[in-house]
Amino acid sequence: MNPQRRLPAEWEPQEAAWLAWPHNPEDWPGALPAVIRIYGVIVRALAASQPVRLIVRDAAAEAGVRALLAEAGADLGNVRFLHLPTDRGWTRDTLPFFVHAERGPRAVRFVFNGWARYPDHTLDARMAEAAARDAGWDMEAAVHGGREVVLEGGAVDGNGRGDLLATEECLLDADEQCRNPGFSRADYEAVFRERLGVANVIWLNRGIQGDDTHGHVDDFCRFVAPDTVLLCREDDPSDPNHAAMEENRERLESARLADGSRPHVVRLPMPAPRWFDGYRLPASYGNFLIANRAVLVPVFGDPQDREALGIIGELLPGREIVGVDAVDLILGLGAIHCLTHEQPVRYGAK
Questions:
Q1: Is 232 annotated in the active site?
Q2: How many CB atoms are located within 10 Å of the residue 70 CB?
Q3: Buried (b) or exposed (e) across 233-268, using 16+ Cβ within 10 A?
Q4: Mean pLDDT by 10-residue block, N- to C-terminus, for the chain (350 residues)?
Q5: Quick one: which H or E segment has residue 245?
Q6: The pLDDT of residue 69
Q7: What is the pLDDT of residue 349?
Q8: Rounded to whole angstroms, how far apart are CA atoms 247 and 2?
Q9: What is the structure's pLDDT at 4?
Q10: 3-class DSSP state for residue 114?
Q11: 303: which residues sit within 8 A by CB, 6+ positions away?
């Protein structure tokens, strides 16, 4: 581990939560108006107890969004706007990693290349630098072996104590959606150690069906405490997610944390499969956001909603558990965690 650096856990105090206002109809076929209303719900829930930084295209867009948020009942006094054209709005993957460092807070910028899949990402690739500048954090590029490293925020999940979750499917597949050709497990672990202060990487196998990122861990496996991991379970043995999640469970149960202890694994149900135009959507309760006083959890009008909300509430006490309708959100192949990005309180801040 790099003792001079630490990637904070999501449940630690946050200076702000970031979002980028949705505008690309291709992300949500036929559902963009519904998604805009859901964004209003998300911003209202967050702004009730903490600052929200919202990326919009320009001043005209800001005016329209302000009116929509006022109608939604959001506390606009807690919302600050940043004008920046974007391709999409998945801030989890495009914004920097906010890291505590001995010489002051650092916004570590990784290259965003559209998940090694989509060509229209050049505007979004500018978001990390713009957000770091707006937040007042010194930015640095993540470089390893003489080249800048490609990585999205949803590809990893940390506990603030030197442990990180990642999948082999996302980061080590050399043939499909390869982020960093030639990178080995050791290369990634060196990057995580040097840039994020990570001592221990727990490598899971693969993610859930319908995930166009090719295995982002934040869809199905999350730290909720330094020693506790929430892992999705699929009870139907005929569903491909069943075998994938059981293999991930076996890996977690044999894993060790940086302090030598074993992680406590809690299972989280999955909703029934959801489809659009013959394509399996990545419906999951694991794509939740932990905020200062709330946890925003995707729900699907499914019988498993109540159990999932109850489990998350028990593991994250003291926060309001807010179920957010994600039926239309997942048409974009992501949900609440993918759309948001926390900015932690920097050391010394009040």
A1: no
A2: 12
A3: bbeeeebebeebbeebbebbeebebbeeeebeebeb
A4: 86 98 95 98 98 98 98 98 97 98 93 97 98 97 97 98 98 98 98 98 98 98 98 98 98 98 98 97 98 98 98 98 98 98 78
A5: helix 240-254
A6: 98
A7: 44
A8: 30
A9: 87
A10: coil
A11: none
pLDDT of residue 22: 97
Q: What is the CATH number of domain 5-340?
A: 3.75.10.10
Six token digits for residue 36: 């805009």
CB contact at 8 A, 317 and 265: no
Per-residue tokens: 286: 């694991």
Nearest-10 Cα torsion for 185, 190, 192, 198: 110
Residues contacting residue 90 through CB under 8 Å, at least 6 positions apart: 20, 124, 154, 334, 338, 339
What is the reported pTM? 0.97
* Spatial separation of the C-alpha atoms in residues 349 and 312, rounded to whole Å: 29
DSSP-derived secondary structure letter, 78: G
* Closest to 17 measured CA to CA, from 217, 316, 290, 318: 290
Contacts of residue 142, defined as CB under 8 A and 6 or more positions apart, other chains included, come to: 108, 109, 110, 111, 148, 149, 151, 191, 195
Identify which of 224, 200, 198 has the alpha carbon closest to the alpha carbon of residue 286. 224
**Catalytic pick among 170, 221, 232, 338:** 338
User: How many whole angstroms separate alpha carbon 184 and alpha carbon 189?
Assistant: 9
Residue 239 CA to residue 73 CA, distance in Å, equals 40
Distance, CA of 304 to CA of 300 (rounded, Å): 9
What whole-number distance in Å separates Cα of residue 111 and Cα of residue 94?
A: 8
Give the residues across from 119 on adjacent strands. none
Residue 184 tokens, joined: 């080995």
Q: Which amino acid is at 147?
A: R
What is residue 254's predicted lDDT score, i.e. its pLDDT? 97
